[in-house]
Specification:
Layout lengths: L3 H14 L3 E11 L3 E10 L4 E11 L2 E12 L6 E6 L13 E4 L5 E3 L6 H11 L1
Antiparallel strand pairs: 1-2, 2-3, 3-4, 4-5, 5-6, 6-7
Length: 128
């Protein structure tokens, strides 16, 4: 069983050793025995910017991400590449509430929930 505190520590360790991360800053971190929240700003080696936020809970000895937002933008933070989130504002999408904003805020497609930010890191590292 991974505790919320251990999960956040593992996440920061993965960021510190990742080949795609130039630097990162933990903007907010809250950890309790049964849940946690983390928000991190990341500069990628290619110059892009990423902000990740997760609220997660410990349920049946397993951590589950309940709310998430992973926003990937250009260096100047003006152009959105993609944002994965599960804010409940597109109820007509087939995968509600999970969705992806692609290129523009209004360009929204059904998304797939990522198990965690670590999944995004693995996906991005493989796609480079």
């Amino acid at each position: 069983m991974t505790t919320p505190a251990e999960y956040v520590l593992q996440l920061k360790t993965k960021l510190a050793i990742s080949s795609i991360v130039a630097s990162f800053n933990v903007v907010e971190e809250k950890v309790w025995l049964d849940r946690g929240y983390v928000r991190i700003r990341i500069a990628l080696n290619n110059g892009d910017f990423l902000e990740a936020a997760e609220y997660f809970v410990l349920q049946d000895d397993d951590l589950t991400t309940r709310r998430y937002r992973y926003q990937w933008m250009d260096k100047e933070r003006r152009k959105l590449h993609k944002r994965w989130d599960n804010v409940e504002h597109f109820p007509d999408l087939s995968n509600f509430p999970d969705h992806i904003h692609i290129g523009k805020e209004e360009n929204v497609e059904p998304g797939k929930a990522l198990a965690s930010f670590s999944c995004w890191m693995c996906w991005r590292a493989r796609s480079q």
